Amino acid sequence: MSAQPTPAFNPHTTLGALFLGVVVSCILYGVTNTQTYIYLCRFPQDKPAIKATVAAIWAMETAHVICVIHAVYVWTISAYGHPEALLGRAPASLITSFLLHYLIGVVVQIFFSIRIYRLSTHPSCTPIAYFLWLTALARLVMGCYVCALGFAAPSFVALPGHRDRVVEL
């Protein structure tokens, strides 16, 4: 029996979608830069802890954009003419961008839960803040686990095969 022919590589459905996602991400990063600048200019009297949180989120967003752009560079420039590279091991910068994504979400979620805790005058809001802290912790653990799977996976295609392990958490 003869082997099935390999379908032709279509960059529009893979690299094209990836490129468009990075363009949108960079546009949103520009919005983040603008918001950070406006915040620092308009609220100089805010507590240092809030300013440090904003600076940390901005720094992680910057690192996230750099990692995503690097991953696109690896797949589109370094592996130019070799579409099979998309099926190989994911670039470390892409997995790192996943970790940064989770960290940013956790920092924001914890910040908002602290605000709810401090601003709530009704005692029934305290359990809500605690619940949000627990979900932030669960998100952090899940994110670290998914990133560890990403670094350990032999190929980018093998990552969905680890879905059962993630669901068990």
Kindly describe this structure.
- This protein is mostly helical and 169 residues long.
- It has one domain (15-168).
- 71% of the residues lie in helices and 0% in strands.
- The chain contains five helices and no strands.
- The chain has helices at residues 15-42, 48-78, 92-119, 126-152, 163-168.
- Helix 3 (92-119) runs antiparallel to helix 4 (126-152).
- The longest helix has 31 residues, at 48-78.
- The model has no long low-confidence stretch (mean pLDDT 85).
What labels describe this entry?
5 helices; 169 residues; mainly alpha
SSE arrangement:
Elements: H1 15-42, H2 48-78, H3 92-119, H4 126-152, H5 163-168
Helix pairs in contact: 1-2, 2-3, 3-4
The value of Rg in angstroms is 20 Å
- Computed structural class: mainly alpha
- Amino-to-carboxy terminus distance: 43 Å
Total beta strand runs = 0
Can you tell me the number of structural domains? 1
Helix content: over 70%
Shape label: globular
**Major sheet: size, sense and barrel closure?**
none
Element-level helix/strand string: HHHHH
What can be said about this structure in brief?
With 169 residues, this protein is mainly α. Helices cover 71% and strands 0% of the residues. The chain has one domain.
